[in-house]
Amino acid sequence: MNKSILVLPGDGIGQEVTESALTILYELDRRYNLNLDVSIMDVGGTSYEQHGSPLTDEVINKAKESDAILFGAVGGPQWDNLPWNKRPEQALLGLRKELELFANLRPAFLFKELAAASTLKTEVIADLDLLIVRELTGGVYFGEPRGIEKDVVNNQGYAYNTMIYYENEIKRIAKIGFEAAQKRNKKLCSVDKANVLEVSKFWREIVEEVSNDYPDVKLTHQLADNAAMQLVINPKQFDVIVSSNLFGDILSDIAATLSGSIGMLPSASLNSSSQGMYEPCHGSAPDIAHLNVANPIAMILSLSMAFKYSLELPQLAEQLDNCVRQFISKGYRTKDLTDDDNFIYTNKVASKILDILDEFEND
Ligand code: IPM
Ligand code: MG
């Protein structure tokens, strides 16, 4: 059966960067007869404007029957004051939950030519290559009970969330972490707050238990505050980091900026049947939306991750990664990566990458 991709550009620069990835996708499909079945639908604020909801049932159903989902970005100030369930971010959270995309892979690596674009010293980040495995469908993001209420006795409002993890949720994400480490440098650092939170103490115990099945992987633990600091002081000590939903959210933003620009980093969110949603780590960046200056590389590399993890096209993934590497080596820079005016506009990136592919093919 043909593989299917659902493309959800979303809001802000999500639309521009998706356009670039789509240009590449269509061309690869044509060149290599991939016979991919591609659909494009609204999501986020754009969907709210068109259909009254950030995530329609049609999109959920289509997503469930697709092999891969390419997700741009959602959000924008014009939707900040909408009721909770209408906010664009709910689309992202809803898709993660509906498809049970519990394993979020966020690689952070540095293209050596971009070391100067990072705020950190070159020697700290040179050869950076780490992977954050973030639990994505549990923890405080989804725990019940949650709410904002009024305490009538004390006459003041209060709000609460629940940070909860079931054993099976910890086990399955820990396994993903160990397996990823086995394919890399065999080091896994589990991040928690076991000195304060019961849920973290439990997390640590379960991760220790799972580690018995992976004797070849060296397991360490770090507290989340220390891990945040270590990522900035000495990021190269890490190979794979595994963490809960909230800590992974925070650490992955830190890790992303180490690489020079958050516009470079892709991510994959997978369920247990290799179905996946692929999105850049950056958001919708409303301040630069529609100016044709966004960096589409994270989105293009997300497409590459989709080839690798959900579409059974690992060689194509490698080829596309090589083209992106070559694009950077040749000196092309989007606006986020350079101080001068000599940058390449968003809508010119895809055709340059395809030119590089031609060069590889003719070699
Ligand atoms: C991310 C984002 C999301 C999250 C937001 C937009 C809901 O920050 O994917 O890291 O918190 O998970
Ligand atoms: Mg985040």
**How would a textbook summarize the main sheet?**
10 strands, mixed
Instruction: Specify the CATH homologous superfamily of the largest domain.
Output: Isopropylmalate Dehydrogenase
- What is the rounded distance between the termini? 33 Å
Small molecules in complex: 3-isopropylmalic acid, magnesium ion
Whole-number count of domains: 2
Give the overall pLDDT as a whole number: 96
User: What's the helical proportion of residues?
Assistant: 40-55%
Low-confidence stretches: none
Order of helices and strands: EHEHHEHEHEEEHEHEHEHEEHHH
Category from helices, strands and their pairing = alpha/beta
The CATH C-level name of the largest domain is: Alpha Beta
CATH topology tier name of the largest domain: Isopropylmalate Dehydrogenase
Any idea what the shape is?
globular
Count of runs of 4 or more consecutive helical residues:
12
Count of strand segments = 12
Radius of gyration: 21 Å
